Batch of 4 targets.
Target 1
Amino acid sequence: MATHFLADLHLQDDRGQLARKLHAYLAGPAHQAAAVYVLGDLFDVWIGDDGSLPQHRATINAFAALAAAGTRVYFMRGNRDFAVGEDFFRSSGMRLLPDPQLLDLYGIPTLLSHGDLLCTDDHAHQAFRQKYLDPRWRRRRLRLPLWFRRVAAAWARRKSSRDKARKPRHIMDVNGDSVLRLMHEHGALQLIHGHTHRPETHDYCAHGEKLRRIVLPDWRPGQTGVLVVDENGCRTLWLD
């Protein structure tokens, strides 16, 4: 059976077009997979299980149904949904993955990551990443009143949009040296990640070995794709 990978859906609630596409995928093609990996930013923002679970209940239930049917479902935190907690995992049936995670993918040592740890030229984002990776920082944030977290999340999204408009494009992409260093450290021949919203396959040669980096498609109207990997290789399943 195949293994499926997806990332960067940025769902805002259960009512949107992208959420409906995801629900149809989870009820259909995902059942043909042995495992489904969600590599971060499934949600556009997650202010805590208490505030975000209700508006994504149908999505959570769809993942839970897939897991109950026997498909292994994994979730890696992204920079938008780093605050998912125990209630999320208990309700969805998903299993938390560290970032990065190495696995044997049909005989190929493959490293999985959300991808933002590779954007090392973006110093401001790396500083934020160090915060959201800290469980103590997350706990302090989640103790704030729900109304305040909603306001803070809306402000953060606006600020992120302004910052992206001002940053040079290359800063928000991965750093090539960081990619090769991380793959070498983990003994990986293949890397699968999201975050950059630049779906493409990149081939490298380093230390006498051929390496491959696969960037998952971000989801948007007219572009909803899942990477399907099996013993025959990789392909993108387009859901439109």
Target 2
Amino acid sequence: MWLLAWMVVNGPPDSATDAMSRLEIIADTYLSMSAPIQLAAPVLLDQRKNIQPLLLDRTRENLQELDRALLRQKSCQRLAVEGGWYTILRVPVTRSDEELSIELVQSGGVLVHPGHFFDFASEGNLVLSLITASDAFREGVKRILRHVNS
């Protein structure tokens, strides 16, 4: 397996230090970096200069598209984006997020994550990827809102 990743730990200093100690054990035990990835890391990290602007543009464009679509209806809203390339869509709770996610795949061919995948304690949260190709994202949002509002 080829693995290159990083993580940010945040929170009260004592808790963050404790979490980092535990994460270090897990990383060293189960997620060690292979020699080919160690050798390729400088080149891979340098490639960020090419890919980051593309990802940032796409995530901004998709977020703006979602906001435009949400303005045309009243039942759904999105939560503030705190980082990364996901956004949380708040939807009316008429069934579990998992049931709604399955319905969206089966009826509309739209892939979303149910909120419980991201430890939301309550229902009514769908997680959408903002790095989806813009045309597909626009169509997916249209299908989600049509399904939820029907």
Target 3
Amino acid sequence: MKIAICEDSVTDAGLLKGHVLEHYGSSCTIEIFPNEIEFLENFKPGCYDIIFMDIYLVNEDGISVCKAIRQTDDNCLIVFVTTSPDHAIEAFQVNAAHYIKKPICADTVTAALRKCDKLLAKRLAFIPVKAERAVRKVYLSELIYVEVAHNTCRLVMKSGEIRARQTMSELEKLIRHSGGGTRFIRCHQSYLVNMDYITEVKNNCFVMENGDIATIRRHDRSAIKSAFEEFLFAKT
């Protein structure tokens, strides 16, 4: 576990570091940066699991720094630290994991880290998929949807797609047992979709992040749409 703290207050940076160490102990390494310039000079995609970012920095605001981060790294977890909640909407736009309001205390840092722990565990969940004479590990965080096509299952992921020698019911059960049941919904006999990748509901279909369309079955369309709305509210 690698953690970065970008904070221009020496006192607040020390408090954050202390509370993080109380939570993770020796299982993490922590780097502290007093400004965004030093942070960006050292930042590389994938180098940090969690980044604590002060919104009010000396030369630039933390939101702008995180927008630069998101250009190359979608996976690191960002926790904003600030004296004001005014930037909550902007924090949501850069997919922030949590928002800590100063003064910093152990309870708020612990709550943020518990949220990060859940997100990290979610990212590591996977299912074994039988494909092309081999068993492949498919991470649920990368799986956009599953489609039944020509008597096989087509798994569409962020990095490509594979054909599985398993039924939709078998894959659905694997996903449920791997902890991904709350993210995936069987919206049609032919589609099992990851609600994290739904961008909109249009013409009684789900539009996925990659532009593909998943049909919503007719007979319980309202219930499926309601389930998606509840999923969105639970994420906020």
Target 4
Amino acid sequence: MFFQKKSLMFDSESIGHQLRATREQKNLKIETIAKKLVIKVDYLKALEDNDRTKLPTGVYANNFLREYARFLGLDYRELVKQFASETEISNNKTNPLFERQIVAKKYLVAIPTLIRNSLIALIALVCLIYIIFLVNKIFQAPYLNIIYPANDFPTTQKELEIVGQTESESEVQINSQVVQVSSDGSFKKSIYLERGLNTIIVSAKKKHSRSATVTRRILFEDNPPSLNSAN
């Protein structure tokens, strides 16, 4: 009895089916082929199962397919082309509607994240502004107003009362002498003048702040010239 070698045509069949059918027709075990080709059995099984997820990436899968097909006597060139075509079809099988749903879901997830990050940034900005306000308030010179006397004030009275207003937590000094400040920030102090021009320096300072200073020039004459003597 003579056996006639026939070439198998599997144009409409998958690569895996062609490989398995040819191997089984030749009564070959996949483990035996794996040893002769020095290729892992799992890779040959993946080729027969059309499971590309278990195959290495790049040119390795093509090389394994080529060696396996040549060993079985198949047209490896056509199989490699078919493998590339099936791989491209597999990669393009994603449903566009499903892709849009995934993208829409990502946007829905991103929007709350954007809102959260915006709120965090806003809160951080408010806190920063508040800290700057507090620091500025700490180091800013306090309010100071001298109610009496006015500047360049002439008087014939030796004793003069200084009246002013500042912030309640301030320390006030008049000519380097500490003056008591009331709870509402008002203060007053009587001073004695020297004959001639007197310079009164009033300063107010909080614990860590700069000083606020107001100067008053007071002219004291106990015997002002009369009109008759002037004549």
